Amino acid sequence: MTSHPSRPVADLFSADGRLKAIPRKPARREALLAHLAATLFEADRTYREPEVNEALKTVHEDFSALRRYLVIGGFLARTKDGADYRRQQRPGSPGGAIPAVA
Questions:
Q1: How far apart are CA 84 and CA 79, in angstroms?
Q2: CA distance 5 to 95
Q3: Does an H or E element contain 8, and which?
Q4: What mean pLDDT comes out for the span 30-40?
Q5: Percent of the chain scored above 70 by pLDDT?
Q6: How far are the Cα atoms of 17, 50, 70 from residue 85, in angstroms, in the given order?
Q7: Facing residues of 94 across strands?
Q8: Half-sphere exposure of 18 toward its Cβ, with a 13 Å CA cutoff?
Q9: What is the DSSP string of 26-63?
């Protein structure tokens, strides 16, 4: 295997901390989404859509695509009216906790 497990997410960002591109490969995109969810959103807090957009704009101009991927991937839960978002526990994580998040 030629990938380096500790490097993939870091390699997606330029020196200024902005995302170079949203990965097309599902596994790489999922690693990015896990990173974004863990670093941009607190676990026990509700966010309004503009707050989610502003947080995602700090890393990439296509914040709506990132927001959609986060919801579809199960990293953020959205209310039916689309107004509120919460970081959520991914199904299948051991013990109900997200690994490596204190």
A1: 6
A2: 23
A3: helix 8-11
A4: 96
A5: 79
A6: 24, 10, 10
A7: none
A8: 9
A9: HHHHHHHHHHHHHHHS-TT-EEEHHHHHHHHHTT-S-H
pLDDT attached to residue 89: 75
What does the DSSP assignment read for 65-101? HHHHHHHHTTSEEE-TTS-EEEE-PPTT-GGGS-TT-
Q: In this structure, what are the phi and psi dihedrals at residue 54, rounded to the nearest 5 degrees?
A: -60, -40
Q: What is the pTM of this model?
A: 0.80
Q: Which residue has the tokens 């896990």?
A: 34
78 has which bridge partners? 85
- pLDDT at residue 34, rounded to an integer: 95
Mean of pLDDT over the chain: 85
The percent of residues above 90 in pLDDT, for the chain, comes to: 74
Q: Describe the strand order of the beta sheet including 76-78 as a list of residue ranges.
A: 46-48, 84-87, 76-78
Q: Which residue has the tokens 């295997």?
A: 1
